[in-house]
Every structure is written in structure tokens, then in C-alpha cells.
């Protein structure tokens, strides 16, 4: 099988496909570099075009990322609820064991 030419694939996607946090870091870095290039070269309209085209997508991504981070906080809250239910179950199991010991001896198979 012939190897693929590295630049025939989307390098951005290859480097960030398993991490939304890496996508955010790369997006912030890329947006900042385009902004700096646009500011440093005001006569070059290509930088302004690239920045304006990318910056709109970057803002949408930031909004989606912040929503994702906020949802993780909700998930953490649900995990705490599960932990509280397991703690309550432990109390109930101990009560059941104490009740059953009045009927069955602890070392018997029953």
C-alpha cells in the first residue's frame, strides 16, 4: 500500500480529532496569528479576508466550546447525585444485614 502524502489530508483535523481542548487551543492561536498578520500588513487585503472568514467560525466554535464546558458542570452535578445515592444504599445494606442477622447466623451458608 502506497503511503499518503501528508499534505493531502487535513492536518488540523488529524492533530485534534480526539481532543476538543486541543481544538480550542489551536483555534485561539490561529485566530490570534491571523489578527496579528492583518494588523501588521494593513495594505494586504488577503490577511483581512482570511481573518474575517475565519474569525466568524472561531466565534461560533468558542460559543460551542463554552456550552460544552458548561454541560460538563451539569454532568459533574449528576455524578454527585449518583455518589449520594450509593452512600444511601450503603446505609440501607447495613440495615438489611443487621436485620437479617437476627434470623440467620453469620457463618452459615444461608
In short:
This protein is mainly alpha-helical. The chain has helices spanning 11-16, 20-40, 45-100.
Note the topology.
Layout: H1 11-16, H2 20-40, H3 45-100
Helix pairs in contact: 2-3
Description:
- The chain is mostly helical.
- The protein is built from 3 helices and no strands.
- α2 runs antiparallel to α3.
- The protein is elongated.
Q: What is the H-and-E element order?
A: HHH
Uncertain residue ranges: none
Gyration radius, rounded: 28 Å
**Helix percentage:** over 70%
Give the class from helix and strand content and strand pairing.
mainly alpha
Number of helices: 3
Overall body shape:
elongated
Strand content: under 5%
Task: Please give the number of β-strands.
Answer: 0
Structure characteristics:
75% helix; mainly alpha; 0% strand; 110 residues
